[in-house]
C-alpha cells in the first residue's frame, strides 16, 4: 500500500544544509499498521508528512496505493489524498466554529457526499458521542475531541490512516481508550495505519515498528510488535 | 452549497461579524452619498423650462416695446411680464429684505406655483408642506403669497397684514414652490396690478424685468427671437436656459463637497476595518485551510470556498447597505434642503446599481488582498507550524488601500485638484501619526523603567503593540479631525465672522436713496448721532468694449460685461483705496475731455482684464454709449466700506438719473429706528449685516447638520477599526492576561494597564486631530474669507481629554473578556 524508496529530506539553513531524513526505505502492506518512533526532533513527523503526500522529499520516491505521488504536483497529490487518506492529529485540529457533527461531516461535504450527515452521525455514535453531536469543540474534553477527529478521519472510509501522536495531548487513561478505539476501527474498516508516536506502549500495538534517530532508520521490528501485542 | 454552509457556520462563530458590519457601513455611506449627490446635481443642473417659467425669457432693466408684443401676438406666442426687485417688507415693527416677485394672471407659462394654506412645520425628511395645491393665476389684489421663511423672519402667521412700499397687503397663502424660487431672500409674490400702488418703482431703481415667452411651436418662437435680437440694447438679452442661482449652486456644491469628504473618511475607516478583519480571518483560517488541504481539497476548491464566502458576504452586505444608504440620503436631504424647499429629482437606477456593486469593490480592494495567498498554504503546515506562509505584505496592502482611497476621493469629488489636496492632507496626518507614535514609543520606553504596576505594564504594552497602536492613532486622528474641524467651522468660524462683524465699523447698508430722500436721511442720521461718510451717487452701467474691441468669448462671461454694475463718482480718494497706478483727479489737468471721460478702475478688475493706464473702455449707461480712459487703478480693499468697480471723474455722468448708497454703523439701540425710517421711505432698501449673519448661520447650520449625520457614521467606523484591531490581538492579550493572572497579578493591575494603553492612544489621537484641524480650518477660512489665523486653545485641552476618556473606555470594553475570565480557561483557550 505504501512504499518509500530511499527517501531523503534536506533543508537549507544559515549554517548550511540540514538533513532531516536520510535515505529511508519502507514497504507497508495493505491492512498493516506501522509505528514510527523516535525522540523529539528525530524526523518522524517529517517522514509521516512525506509518506502522506503532504510534503515532498528532496530525493527518493513514494508510492501510495500504487501511485507515484513524488511525480505529481500538489493538485495531483491532493487528489490521491482525497481518494485514499485520512488523518488524526495530536492537537485534534477540529474547527472551533463547527459542532462535533459538522466537523465529522466536513471531509464528506468537501467532496459533495449527499449522505454526509448520516455517515458522520453513524461514526460519531460508533465512537460513543451520540449525545454530543451538537456540541462545539470547546465544550468537549480532550478525549472527546479526539474521538470526533477519529470519526472525521474514518467517515471517508480511507484506505490509509495517518496519525500523528494521537494520544500526545491526552492523559494516559484517556489515551489508552483512544488507542483501543483507533485500533478497533482500524480493524473493522481494514485501513492501513501509519502512526507516529514516542510511546513504546502504543507502538507495541502495531504490526511493524520503525525507530528513527537523526533522520535515519536505526531499528525495525516486526516480531517484537507481534510479541508485545500478544502479551499486551 | 458548501460555501453557503461554511459562511453560515463562520458567521455563527462570530468571525465575520466585524467584516460584515464594516462592509455594510461602507456601502451605506457610498450609496447614501452617491444617491444624494446625484439628486443634488440633477437638480442643480436642471435646465428645464419649469425653472424658468417659460421657454425663453428677455432679461433687462427696460420694459419691452409695444411693437414686440404685437409681433408676439401675431405669431400666437404666449407672453407674460415678470418683475423682480428687492424690497423691504414690514409687519408692525419688524422688517425684512425680500425678493419681491410681481406676476400677471397667466404666470407661469411653464411649470407651476404650489401653495399651501397651512404654515407648515418644515418636514425634516423633505421640507415640504403636507397639503399643497397648484395656484390658479396670480394673487388677488391686496393679497400676497409668501415663502415659509418669510413668516419666520417677521414672526407672523397667515392672514397677517404687511406693508410693501406705500401699500398694505394680507398674506393669504404660503408659497411652497415656484419657478425662479432660488433667492438669498424670502420670496413674496404680488399681483402686477398692485405694483404702482406700492410706489417702489422709481427711475433708476434696481429692478429686474423679464418678459417670458413660450410656444408649443418651437420654430415660431425661434423666428420671433431671431427677429427680436437685433432690436435689443446692450443691457437686454434673451435667455433660453437657466441653471440654479449661482449663489445657491455654490452653497450646495460646497455642502456636497464637504459631505463627500466626510464620506471618504468613513469609507477609508471602514476599509481599514475590513482589511484588519480580513487579515485576522486569514490568520485564524490558516490551520483550517491546511487541514482541508490535507484531507484532499485542491487549491482551486479552497479558492472557490473562501472567495465564494466573501462574495456572498459582499452581496448580502451590499443589499443591506443599499437600503440603509437610501434611508441615509433621505435624512441628509431633509437636513440640507428643508431650508431651500427645493425639489430634488430621484436617484437613477444606475446609481443604485453602482452602489450595490460597491460592496464587491470594497471586498476587492480591502478584503481580498490578505486572502489571496490562503489557497496556496502548503498542507504540511498542519504538521509543521513553523513552515512560513506567504502573505500579502503590509506595504502592498497599504498601497492597494491608498489607490482605493484615491479613486474614491476622485469618484466623489470629480476634481483632481481636490483629490490631490485631500490625499496630501491624509499623508500629512499619516506622517504626524508616525512622528507622534515614535515619540510615544521612546517616551514610554524611558518611563516604563521608572514606573511600576499598571503604569509599567501599560507602557510596555504600548511598545509591544506599536503597529496596532499606530494604526489606532491614525484612525482616530482622522475621525476626530473631521469632528473637530466641523465644530470649529460651525461655532468658532461663525464666532470669528461675528467678531469680525462686531469690529467692523459698518453694519448697515442703505441703497436706492433718491435725491429727494437724501436730505431727509442725512437729517435722520444726524438726529440719531450716527456718523457716516458722504453718500455716494450711483448709476448702473456695463462695459461693452476695451480699446474699441468687443470682449473675447472668455471675457464676455466676466461680470462687468454681462451685468449692470454700480458706477459712481467722488472727489476725494478714500484712505482704504490707495492708488496702485496712475493719478487722481486733482493731478490731471482738471478739464473733462469732450471725447472721453476719465475713469478709475479697481485693481482686481484691471488684473482680470489686463487693463493699464490710458486704456479706453466703452460703457453702456442706460443704453447710451460712453467712452472712457483709465487714469488710475485703485487697490482692491473690501475691509471697510464700498469699493466700487469704476469711479468716474466728478461731473462727467451726473446728468444720468442716479441714486445714493451708504454704509453706516448702527448701535443696537438705534436698529429699530433705522427700520422705521425705511418704512417711511419704501423705495429705500436696507440691508443689515445682522440679517445676513442670521441667514448665513442658518444656512451653515442646516448644511452642517447633514454632514454631522455622516460624521457620526465616521465615528462608528473608527470604533469598528478599534474593535477589529483589538480583536486581532485578542489571543495574544488572552495569553498575556492568563499568564499574569496565573502568576498572581490582580484583575485591577491588568485592567489598569489596559486603561493606560488605550488612554495614551486616545490622548495622542486627540492631539494630532487638533493640530490637523487647526491647519485645515485655517485653510477653509482663508478660502472663504480673510480671517487671520488664531488658535482655539480650549480645543487643545478639551479634545485630547475627551478622546483619552472615550478611547480608553472603548478599549477596556473591547478587552473586557480577557480581564474577567479565569486564568485556567484563558490558558487553555489560548493554546
Protein architecture, described:
The complex is a heterodimer of chains A (232) and B (831). Chain A has helices at 44-51, 74-84, 100-110, 116-126, 142-155, 172-189, 200-203, 223-231; strands at 2-13, 16-28, 33-38, 59-64, 67-68, 85-88, 160-164, 192-197, 208-213, 216-221. Chain A is 37% helix and 28% strand. In chain A, α3 packs parallel to α5 and α5 runs parallel beside α6. In chain A, the strands form two sheets. A six-stranded mixed β-sheet of chain A has the order 6-7-8-3-9-10. In chain A, strands 2-1-4-5 form a four-stranded antiparallel β-sheet. With 831 residues, chain B is an alpha+beta fold. In chain B, α8 (246-295) crosses α10 (349-371) and α10 (349-371) runs antiparallel to α11 (394-413). The longest helix of chain B has 50 residues, at 246-295. In chain B, a hairpin with a 2-residue loop joins β7 (161-164) and β8 (167-177). The radius of gyration of chain B is 34 Å and the shape is elongated. Helices cover 55% and strands 16% of the residues of chain B. The interface between A and B is medium-sized, with 34 and 27 residues.
What are the SSEs and their pairings?
The complex is a heterodimer of chains A (232) and B (831).
Chain A: E1 2-13, E2 16-28, E3 33-38, H1 44-51, E4 59-64, E5 67-68, H2 74-84, E6 85-88, H3 100-110, H4 116-126, H5 142-155, E7 160-164, H6 172-189, E8 192-197, H7 200-203, E9 208-213, E10 216-221, H8 223-231
Parallel strand pairs in A: 3-8, 3-9, 6-7, 7-8
Antiparallel strand pairs in A: 1-2, 1-4, 4-5, 9-10
Helix pairs in contact in A: 3-4, 3-5, 4-5, 5-6
Chain B: H1 2-12, H2 17-44, H3 49-52, E1 56-60, H4 66-74, E2 78-91, E3 94-103, E4 114-116, E5 133-134, E6 143-147, H5 148-154, E7 161-164, E8 167-177, E9 187-191, H6 195-198, E10 208-214, H7 218-228, E11 237-239, H8 246-295, H9 299-337, H10 349-371, H11 394-413, H12 416-448, H13 453-464, H14 466-503, E12 508-513, H15 515-527, E13 536-546, H16 553-556, H17 559-562, E14 565-569, E15 579-582, E16 597-602, H18 603-609, E17 616-621, E18 624-634, E19 646-648, E20 659-664, H19 671-680, E21 685-688, H20 689-728, H21 730-742, H22 747-784, H23 793-814, H24 816-820, H25 823-830
Amino acid at each position: 500500500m505504501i512504499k518509500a524508496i530511499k527517501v531523503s529530506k534536506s533543508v537549507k539553513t544559515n549554517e548550511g544544509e540540514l538533513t532531516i531524513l536520510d535515505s529511508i526505505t519502507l514497504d507497508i502492506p495493505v491492512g498493516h499498521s506501522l509505528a514510527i518512533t523516535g525522540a523529539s526532533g528525530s524526523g518522524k513527523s517529517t517522514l509521516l508528512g512525506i509518506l502522506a503526500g503532504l510534503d515532498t522529499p528532496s530525493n527518493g520516491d513514494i508510492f501510495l496505493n500504487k501511485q507515484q505521488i513524488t511525480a505529481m504536483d500538489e493538485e495531483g497529490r491532493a487528489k490521491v489524498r482525497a481518494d485514499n487518506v485520512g488523518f488524526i492529529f495530536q492537537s485534534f485540529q477540529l474547527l472551533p466554529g463547527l459542532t462535533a457533527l459538522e466537523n465529522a461531516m466536513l471531509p464528506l461535504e468537501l467532496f459533495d457526499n449527499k449522505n454526509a450527515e448520516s455517515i458522520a452521525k453513524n461514526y460519531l455514535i460508533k465512537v460513543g458521542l451520540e449525545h454530543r453531536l451538537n456540541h462545539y469543540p470547546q465544550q468537549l474534553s480532550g478525549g472527546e475531541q479526539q474521538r470526533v477527529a477519529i470519526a472525521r478521519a474514518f467517515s471517508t472510509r480511507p484506505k490509509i490512516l495517518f496519525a500523528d501522536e494521537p494520544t500526545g495531548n491526552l492523559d494516559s487513561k484517556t489515551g489508552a481508550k483512544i488507542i483501543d478505539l483507533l485500533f478497533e476501527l482500524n480493524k473493522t474498516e481494514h485501513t492501513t495505519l501509519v502512526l507516529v508516536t514516542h510511546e513504546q506502549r502504543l507502538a507495541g500495538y502495531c504490526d511493524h515498528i520503525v525507530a528513527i534517530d537523526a533522520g535515519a532508520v536505526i531499528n525495525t521490528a516486526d516480531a517484537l510488535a507481534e510479541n508485545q501485542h500478544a502479551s499486551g | 452549497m458548501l460555501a453557503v454552509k461554511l459562511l453560515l457556520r463562520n458567521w455563527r462563530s462570530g468571525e465575520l461579524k466585524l467584516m460584515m458590519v464594516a462592509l455594510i457601513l461602507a456601502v451605506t455611506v457610498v450609496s447614501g452619498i452617491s444617491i444624494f449627490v446625484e439628486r443634488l446635481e440633477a437638480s442643480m443642473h436642471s435646465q428645464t423650462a419649469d425653472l424658468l417659467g417659460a421657454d425663453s425669457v428677455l432679461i433687462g432693466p427696460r420694459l419691452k416695446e409695444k411693437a414686440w408684443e404685437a409681433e408676439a401676438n401675431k405669431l400666437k406666442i404666449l407672453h407674460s411680464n415678470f418683475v423682480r426687485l428687492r424690497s423691504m417688507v414690514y409687519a408692525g415693527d419688524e422688517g425684512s429684505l425680500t425678493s419681491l416677485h410681481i406676476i400677471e394672471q397667466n404666470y407661469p407659462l411653464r411649470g407651476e406655483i404650489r401653495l399651501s394654506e397651512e404654515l407648515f412645520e418644515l418636514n425634516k425628511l423633505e421640507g415640504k408642506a403636507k397639503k399643497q395645491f397648484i395656484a390658479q393665476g396670480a394673487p388677488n389684489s391686496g393679497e400676497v403669497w409668501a415663502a415659509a421663511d418669510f413668516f419666520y423672519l417677521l414672526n407672523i402667521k397667515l392672514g397677517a397684514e404687511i406693508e410693501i412700499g406705500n401699500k398694505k397687503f394680507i398674506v393669504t397663502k404660503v408659497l411652497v414652490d415656484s419657478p425662479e424660487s432660488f433667492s438669498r431672500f424670502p420670496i413674496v409674490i404680488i399681483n402686477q396690478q398692485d405694483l404702482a400702488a406700492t410706489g417702489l418703482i422709481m427711475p433708476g431703481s434696481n429692478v429686474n424685468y423679464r418678459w417670458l415667452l413660450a410656444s408649443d411651436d418651437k420654430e415660431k418662437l425661434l423666428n420671433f427671437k431671431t427677429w427680436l435680437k437685433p432690436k435689443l440694447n446692450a443691457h437686454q438679452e434673451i435667455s433660453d436656459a437657466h441653471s440654479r442661482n449661482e449663489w445657491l449652486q455654490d452653497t450646495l456644491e460646497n455642502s456636497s463637497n464637504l459631505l463627500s469628504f466626510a464620506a471618504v473618511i468613513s469609507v477609508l475607516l471602514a476599509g481599514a476595518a475590513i482589511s484588519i478583519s480580513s487579515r485576522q480571518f486569514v490568520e485564524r483560517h490558516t490551520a483550517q485551510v491546511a487541514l482541508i488541504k490535507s484531507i484532499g481539497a485542491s487549491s482551486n476548491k479552497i479558492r472557490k470556498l473562501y472567495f465564494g464566502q466573501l462574495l456572498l458576504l459582499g452581496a448580502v452586505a451590499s443589499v443591506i447597505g443599499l437600503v440603509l444608504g437610501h434611508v441615509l440620503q433621505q435624512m441628509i436631504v431633509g437636513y440640507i434642503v428643508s431650508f431651500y424647499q427645493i425639489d430634488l429629482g430621484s436617484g437613477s437606477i444606475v446609481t443604485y446599481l453602482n452602489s450595490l456593486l460597491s460592496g464587491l469593490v470594497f471586498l476587492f480592494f480591502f478584503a481580498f488582498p490578505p486572502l489571496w495567498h490562503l489557497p496556496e498554504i502548503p498542507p504540511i503546515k498542519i504538521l509543521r507550524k513553523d513552515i512560513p506562509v506567504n502573505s500579502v505584505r503590509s506595504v502592498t496592502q497599504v498601497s492597494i488601500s491608498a489607490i482605493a482611497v484615491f479613486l474614491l476621493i476622485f469618484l466623489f469629488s470629480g476634481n483632481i485638484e481636490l483629490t490631490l489636496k485631500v490625499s496630501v492632507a491624509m499623508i500629512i496626518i499619516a506622517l504626524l501619526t508616525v512622528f507622534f507614535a515614535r515619540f510615544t514609543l521612546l517616551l514610554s520606553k524611558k518611563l516604563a523603567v521608572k514606573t511600576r504596576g499598571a503604569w509599567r505594564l501599560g507602557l510596555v504594552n504600548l511598545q509591544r503593540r506599536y503597529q496596532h497602536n499606530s494604526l489606532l492613532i491614525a484612525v482616530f486622528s482622522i475621525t476626530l479631525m473631521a469632528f473637530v474641524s466641523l465644530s470649529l467651522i460651525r461655532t468658532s468660524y461663525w464666532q470669528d465672522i461675528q467678531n469680525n462683524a462686531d469690529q467692523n465699523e459698518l453694519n448697515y447698508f442703505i441703497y436706492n436713496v433718491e435725491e429727494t430722500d437724501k436730505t431727509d436721511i442725512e437729517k435722520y442720521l444726524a438726529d440719531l448721532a450716527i456718523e457716516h461718510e458722504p453718500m455716494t451717487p450711483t448709476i448702473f452701467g456695463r462695459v461693452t468694449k476695451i480699446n474699441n474691441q468687443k470682449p473675447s468669448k472668455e471675457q464676455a462671461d466676466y461680470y462687468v460685461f454681462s451685468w449692470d454694475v454700480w458706477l459712481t463718482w467722488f472727489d476725494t480718494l478714500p484712505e482704504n483705496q490707495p492708488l496702485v497706478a496712475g493719478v487722481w483727479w486733482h493731478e490731471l489737468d482738471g478739464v473733462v475731455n469732450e471725447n472721453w471721460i476719465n475713469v478709475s478702475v479697481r485693481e482686481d478688475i484691471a488684473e482680470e482684464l489686463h487693463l493699464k493706464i490710458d486704456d479706453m473702455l466703452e460703457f453702456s449707461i442706460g443704453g447710451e454709449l460712453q467712452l472712457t480712459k483709465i487714469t488710475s487703478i485703485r487697490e482692491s480693499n473690501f475691509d471697510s466700506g464700498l469699493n466700487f468697480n469704476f469711479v468716474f471723474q466728478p461731473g462727467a455722468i451726473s446728468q444720468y438719473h442716479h441714486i445714493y448708497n451708504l454704509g453706516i454703523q448702527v448701535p443696537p439701540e438705534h436698529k429699530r429706528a433705522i427700520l422705521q425710517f425705511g418704512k417711511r421711505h419704501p423705495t429705500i432698501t436696507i440691508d443689515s449685516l445682522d440679517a445676513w449673519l442670521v441667514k448665513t448661520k442658518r444656512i451653515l447650520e442646516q448644511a452642517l447638520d447633514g454632514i454631522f449625520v455622516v460624521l457620526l457614521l465616521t465615528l462608528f467606523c473608527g470604533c469598528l477599526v478599534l474593535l477589529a484591531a483589538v480583536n486581532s490581538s485578542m489571543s495574544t492579550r488572552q495569553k498575556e492576561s492568563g499568564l499574569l493572572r496565573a502568576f498572581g497579578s490582580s484583575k485591577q493591575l491588568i485592567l489598569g494597564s489596559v486603561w493606560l494603553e488605550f488612554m495614551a492612544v486616545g490622548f495622542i489621537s486627540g492631539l494630532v486631530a487638533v493640530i490637523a484641524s487647526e491647519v485645515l480650518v485655517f485653510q477653509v477660512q482663508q478660502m472663504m474669507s480673510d480671517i487671520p489665523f488664531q488658535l482655539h486653545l480650549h480645543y487643545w485641552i478639551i479634545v485630547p481629554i475627551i478622546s483619552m476618556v472615550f478611547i480608553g473606555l472603548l478599549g477596556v470594553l473591547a478587552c473586557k473578556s480577557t480581564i474577567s475570565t479565569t486564568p485556567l480557561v484563558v490558558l487553555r483557550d489560548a493554546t
